[in-house]
Amino acid sequence: MARHHRRQGGPELDVRAAYAAHGPELYRFALRQLGDGGAAQDVVQEVFLRAWRSAGAYDPQLASLRTWLFAIARNVVVDEARRFAVRPWQRTLTEVTETDAPAVVAIDEALVDAWVVEEALRRIGEEHRAAIVQTHLRGRPHAEVAAEFGIPVGTLRSRVFYGLKALRLAMEEMGVEP
């Protein structure tokens, strides 16, 4: 397997350097999700294989390498969890009890989701970002936020609507399903 993969007209993705920088953290993430050391190793291997294969799709202007790799890891972990659900006999190492698994998965998925949303929010306009953060993330009433911004409520609602569309597009461009 080649060490580098060149994006057309873009920078090289050094898979070895990426693995050295992010491999252990991705392994811990997968291990917490799946509770299986062998499966976690498989996840990390699959993440870097997918990253190498789709290096041309990686755009550092859209997301950091770490965010991109964790988005891939999240998808691979979901695939693995589904595989375990369909074929539970394939799980050979440490088992995670069904009562423990959802809490651990929810915490780590929430953390990865937060990184992805934060990265996507950086990619949209300031007015849209402020409207979404204040109304959706902080849960403030539209009338209160509109008054603070000095705009009509309808304008704020419009900014939220178009901001969410822009956020969804930014996440899709990052390779993440919103």
TrEMBL record:
It comes from the Bacteria. Signal peptide: none annotated. CDD domains: Sigma70_r4. The keyword Transcription applies. InterPro entries: RNA_pol_sigma-70-like (IPR039425), RNA_pol_sigma-70_dom (IPR014284), RNA_pol_sigma70_ECF_CS (IPR000838), RNA_pol_sigma70_r2 (IPR007627), RNA_pol_sigma70_r4 (IPR007630), RNA_pol_sigma_r2 (IPR013325), RNA_pol_sigma_r3/r4-like (IPR013324), WH-like_DNA-bd_sf (IPR036388). One of its GO terms (molecular function) is DNA binding. Gene3D superfamilies: 1.10.1740.10, Winged helix-like DNA-binding domain superfamily/Winged helix DNA-binding domain. Residues 19-83, 120-168 form the RNA polymerase sigma-70 region domain. Keywords: DNA-binding, Sigma factor, Transcription, Transcription regulation. The keyword rRNA-binding does not apply. Belongs to the sigma-70 factor family. ECF subfamily. NCBIfam families: sigma70-ECF. This is RNA polymerase sigma factor. The lineage of its organism: Bacteria, Bacillati, Actinomycetota, Actinomycetes, Geodermatophilales.
